[in-house]
Structure formats: C-alpha cells, structure tokens
Amino acid sequence: MKKSRCIIFGGGGFIGSHLVKSLVNKGYSIYVFTLGSKHEQNNLKNVIKHINLIKGDFNDANSLRKFIKPGDIIFDLVASSVPSSSFASPVDEINKHIYPHVNLFEVAFQKKVKKIIFLSSGGGVYGEKKIMPISELSLTKPISPHSIAKLTIEYYLQYFSRLYRIPILIYRVSNAYGPRQIPKDGFGIIPAMFFNILRKKRPILFDHGKIIRDFIYIDDLTEAIAMSFDKKNKFDVYNLGSSKGTSLIMLYKKIKEITKSNIEPLYQPKRSFDVDKNVLDISRISHEFNWTPMTDLNTGLQNTWKWLNSQN
C-alpha cells in the first residue's frame, strides 16, 4: 500500500530534521517545505537524497495552495518565537505565530488533507502546577504570549477538526535537546550551557538553578512521533517528554563533569514566565504505543557535547 506524502513545515530545523530522518527510515515519502537556508540544508545533508525539498514561504497562502494536495499528511513544526522574546510584542506573536499557522490549516482542510500533526509546548501551555507529573487532562494556564499562541493554535485545530472531520494530533513536547540544536536567544538551555563553556563564559541559571525541567533526547522524541502519528484517526493530544525532572543546577553539574569545566554559573532571579517545575506525565502515549524514552540524560548530554565539538 502506497503511503501518503508527508509534508513537513519546519523540517530543516532542529526537531524537524531529526523527524525527517525517522520518517525516511520508516519508508515515508517526505517533502520538506523550506526557505532553503544554509543552516537547514546542512541539517538535512544526510537525508537529502531521500527527500524532496520544496522552496517556499510558510506565510504565503498561494505557495501553500499550489503545493498541498488531497491526502497529504501535514506536519507543522514551525516555531517563530520563544517565551522570552514573545513579551516584546504580543501583537507580533499574533501576526507572526498564530495567523500563519491558522492560514496553513485553512488551506490544508480546503485541500482535504489526510491529517495534521502539530508540535505544541508541554512546558508552556500548562503554566504553574503544584502536582507532578502533569497529565494531558490538567488545566491549561499559559503565562507568556508564546504559550498563549501555542494554546490558541491548539483550539483552532480542535475547531477545524470538528468542522472538517479530519484527524489532528497535537504533541505537547517538553524540553527537547540533542545534536543540531544551536543556542539562539531563548532556545535550549542545554546548548546555551555548552556554548558558554566553549566560549569560556559563565552560564546563566535563573531562580538560582532551582527550576526543574523535563528533558527529552531528540531521537526519543522523533521516534515517538514517527511510530504513533499514523495510527490515530481522531483529534488527540499527547504529552511527550521523559517524565523525569532535573533541576538546572543539577543539569549544569552534569555538564561540568562531561566538559571537565571549572566555570561557575551566574545566578539570576526568576523571570516572570518561568514556572518552578514542569514534568510531563507520558503514561498515555507510553501505554497506547508501547513507547518509552531510551536515552538517559547523561548519555544524551555526552552525545550532544560530542556533536558540538565536531562543529568547531
């Protein structure tokens, strides 16, 4: 049986490029919709012979209409902001984050696609919680324009799914890390720590390093998506993380040991959008698909450090 085309928006990024590899390994026909930057091309160089690169603008509805076909499976992995940058202009968050995604969904449903997969924020949409781990049934209470936008997109997807009766899968992802993740403002505490060490700078730990996060290695994340997305035919939401909490101070101690660094962190107060603790309950996706994360934090950090050194 011929498999549907998988159209991946954001397929040249950190998570996207790893997901492309996982889907190629499972025999899917992959189309990556991209602006074609050198960074994206470099991320995809090991699978470039097995995929189709389509240059186009995610914000251009005409490009989307020309390319998307009935029966396609749409992966929306595009990220335009992070919590720390979204405070600068909530209006930009609406124009640059919410509108383009809703526009994509509208075109996709008009074209009668088979399914849409959206990566949301497991660290943002739930907000501050006292009881851990956090299940998919927990009340959502986002505390930044970025996470408000993510949840708004989820609501639009739920609406479109009811209207057009097309399956939607939403994965609320914890803190993903691993090779190919580069430190940009607000993106990835792990690569930020590693890069600071490489540059002999003191990493910043907010709230004196007491903040607890759920870290999932990129290979575990993409394998979970690749093995589950085509087995569901309704609207569903899944948490996707490790279900293990690690404080930032403990994380940095592990990184210091791996890098053999003696650089001490710089402690700063907690930011307004930092929740004290975020650990996801992954029992639902684990039970339904017999999946469990295979990479412990130490191994994942070692793999990441090895990759970073290979880039310098």
From TrEMBL:
<dbReference type="InterPro" id="IPR036291">
    <property type="entry name" value="NAD(P)-bd_dom_sf"/>
</dbReference>
<protein>
    <recommendedName>
        <fullName>NAD-dependent epimerase/dehydratase domain-containing protein</fullName>
    </recommendedName>
</protein>
<dbReference type="InterPro" id="IPR001509">
    <property type="entry name" value="Epimerase_deHydtase"/>
</dbReference>
<comment type="similarity">
    <text>Belongs to the NAD(P)-dependent epimerase/dehydratase family.</text>
</comment>
<feature type="domain" description="NAD-dependent epimerase/dehydratase">
    <location>
        <begin position="7"/>
        <end position="241"/>
    </location>
</feature>
<dbReference type="Pfam" id="PF01370">
    <property type="entry name" value="Epimerase"/>
</dbReference>
